[in-house]
Amino acid sequence: MSEITVLAVVGSLRNSSLNRELAEVAVANAPAGVRVDIAEGIGEVPFYNEDIDGDAAPASAEALRGKIRDADAVLLLTPPNNGTVSAVLKNVIDWGSRPYGASALSGKRVALAGVGHRLDTTLADAERAVSIAGGQVPEGLVEEFSISGLDGGSVRGHDAVARRAGELIERLVAPLR
């Protein structure tokens, strides 16, 4: 059986983002036979605008769509930006959902996670956007990693976070094995 690939998309552009750390933990703790790749360059993708989509779509947007299409599953990580999905992640979902009828997210298994406080509405908004875009977020694939559980430390330094991240990836890919 070939290796399963998961594309991790971090909804924060900050270099020291806790959600970026969580993506790195997911890479390091992926189950056997699974490769997690972090989408790079999403800050270079312009805000979605149908006027620049189509045959003349920006190369950065086309590259992002290609990464989504090529992945077997997707892990979206979002910070709680004012209680909703970050603009960065929403833009990824918007580009991934178009053109109409050819969504790169269509039928794709998607897991949602985030590090922060009170991520319930953030993750619910992300789930709604992904579902409208054609992605599938099955039950058990939404995971909140509370900052208070980190005791002021790094995401990378917690065995429980590593275990939970690996388990989330396993639940995401289990039906694909």
Structure write-up:
By secondary structure, this protein is an alpha/beta fold. It has 5 helices and 5 strands. The protein has helices spanning 18-28, 59-70, 87-96, 120-132, 159-173, and strands at 4-10, 34-38, 73-77, 109-116, 142-146. The chain has a 5-stranded parallel beta sheet, with helices on both faces. Strand 4, helix 4 (120-132) and strand 5 (142-146) form a beta-alpha-beta unit. The longest helix is centred in the last third of the chain and has 15 residues, at 159-173. The chain starts with a strand and ends with a helix.
Question: Care to give the gist of this entry?
Answer:
The protein has 177 residues and is α/β, with parallel strands linked by helices. The protein has helices at 18-28, 59-70, 87-96, 120-132, 159-173, and strands at 4-10, 34-38, 73-77, 109-116, 142-146.
Core attributes:
34% helix; 5 strands; alpha/beta; five-stranded parallel sheet; 177 residues
Structural class: alpha/beta
Low-confidence stretches: none
What's the helical proportion of residues? 25-40%
Strand order of the largest sheet: 2-1-3-4-5
Write the layout of secondary structure elements.
Layout: E1 4-10, H1 18-28, E2 34-38, H2 59-70, E3 73-77, H3 87-96, E4 109-116, H4 120-132, E5 142-146, H5 159-173
Parallel strand pairs: 1-2, 1-3, 3-4, 4-5
Helix pairs in contact: 1-5
